Amino acid sequence: MSSLAFLVALLLSCSSMSSAARRLEEIPKPEYPSHPTVPEIPKPELPPHPNVPEIPKPELPPHPTEPEHPKPELPPHPTLPELPKPELPPHPTVPEHPKPEIPHPVPEVPKPELPHPAVPELPHPVPELPKPELPPHPTVPELPKPEVPEHPEVPELPRPELPPHPELPRHPTIPELPKPEVPEHPTMPELPKPEVPEHPAVPELPHPDVPEVPKHELPPEPESHYPVPESKP
User: Fold this and answer.
1) Of the candidates 200, 205, 199, 201, which has an alpha carbon nearest to the alpha carbon of residue 42?
2) Under a CB-based contact definition with an 8 Å cutoff, are residues 184 and 20 in contact?
């Protein structure tokens, strides 16, 4: 149902679009007036530049010369008398202390002379002692092996019978819907190209003659009255 509703909506939108396009084609386009041509304004003629008269150079008075000042004579540096060196007293000598004689706390004890004990002489030869007869090792009887009981046989359990799987319903088959016929796009008619008017030719204006302006000479730099510092070697 949803797909059918979608297709119906598509058909309605296509039909509305085609009707709107036909209405737009039927509306006549308004004809706009051509742009008015603006006349060119003539350039005003400028008067020539006035000639500037040359200004006479003013005569400057010479710089006054300053007299040289005499250098002041400084008094000589006073000489200081040499001071006598102070005599220091000699270092005092420390007397040597005699070493104290330490008496021995433990007097030496003379070692006592111990007499050696006399060892009695044994008669030779020493009689041989008889070897004791050891009893033979007892024989360990072989023990019978214990009989291990066999593992009991586990009886096979019967497998439970499972119920058969239920058959699932098959997917419903969707019927093929007929394809809607889409209308062809309307062809736009070719509009005639508007004729553009040619641009008017602009007449060339004569260039005015500009007189050359004379160059002004700058006055010379005044001499400075400050002394020039001597360069250090």
Assistant:
1) 205
2) no
